[in-house]
Amino acid sequence: MSRTARAVSMLALISAASVLAACSDDSTADSPDSSERVDTSASASVPSSEAVEAEAPKVVDPLDPTSVVNDPCGALSSSQLDQLGLTEGEERPNEGLESGACRWQRATESLDSVSLSVVVENEDGLNALYADKGSYEYFEPTEVSGYPAVYASLLDSRDSGICDLWIGVNDHEVVHIMTNLASEKNADASCGLAADAADAVITTLGS
């Protein structure tokens, strides 16, 4: 596994996600429960810049994620939060990464949440995931609002309500959405919410 993809994989393990931190620590795979992994989803190291062979679809209409890097909770507007049933976001640090992260809950008393971060240090974009797709328990290419994306994680916790979605907003930068639906524990519901959130983020970036 390349260092670039290990970077990705660490973010996956720590946050029940997958891909993009340039150091690996197998102990994170033993994270005891999904809520802990969500709380630490921002932790990742800067990925390596080593090139990988292009395999992911090209991004036809690149987006600049700078606004979300600087203000991750601004990725979803008030109206979008209402549509998604989410409360105001809480910004979290992304140790070792340039960008921060944001977490939105479905309700103040709910454990259901959506987390977002942008990885700008990885010059290979979605290709980092494709390069080591055999390492993940699930790797399902998809498309969100015309942008190439992948449902992927080293740990398949979708039936426990956790889904990881990676969207290539341009050929070098990736938006990571992770949903944790403690109340539903349903793959269709968790991955469906991730896609809806990703669609909203793309609308924000394109406006």
Automatic annotation (TrEMBL):
Residues 41-51 have a biased composition (Low complexity). Residues 24-99 are annotated as: Disordered. Residues 1-21 form the signal peptide. InterPro entries: DUF3558 (IPR024520). Transmembrane segments: none annotated. Keywords: Signal. This is DUF3558 domain-containing protein.
